[in-house]
Amino acid sequence: MIMTKPAQTPFHQNKNTSHATPAFTLVELLGVITIIGVLAGLTLGGAGAIRRHGATSQAKSEVAALQAACERYFADNNAYPAPSTMPDPSTTLDVNPTVSKYSTAGTTLFTNLVGSSTLTATLTSKRYFEPKPAMVNTNGNYFIDPWGYAYGYNSNGTNAPLIWSTAGTMKGETNKWITSWPKL
Question: Which of 2, 41, 48, 160 has its CA 20 to 30 A from that of 13?
Fold first, then answer.
């Protein structure tokens, strides 16, 4: 009769010897899990900062593109789009980009630069700006920034327009705004 040796597992002691086979202890496993958790936290924290930086860069380029489109509009019409109701970026009363003044002025800007009342409507005038669909609100009649708020727009028709994004802030933190005018 042939005798076979029983299979050894890492958690059982070998019957033929007096020492245990090597295995991880609970403390070692908890240490590794803790290190992985710390590294994941650092990585995810950095991802949020990168996402915010990306949204800021996108808003800066969109403000510059809207400003350039306004200049093209001015070159053809000798006037900038002039909304009937304009938000005033110098007052703290208009820091909330969800108020109707933002969308009213934005609708005027949208209609004049896109050449129609919505992105998919038939053109009624020359198109000066071709926005990405993500830059247009769900009703399709004003521009929104990467944070989902309406871009601010202010122009009397003769002076260069002021275009800005509140950069997702609604507490009057105008130093964080992304603007078409230089910061002083």
Answer: 2
Query: pLDDT tens digit string along 109-136?
Result: 999 999 998 888 888 899 999 999 999 9
Q: Quick check: 73 and 113 in contact, CB under 8 A?
A: yes
Of 40-44, 85-89, 128-132, 156-160, the least confident: 85-89
Query: What is the average pLDDT across 50-64?
Result: 92
The answer to whether 92 and 76 have CB atoms below 8 angstroms apart is no
Write out the two tokens for 63. Answer: 């403000």
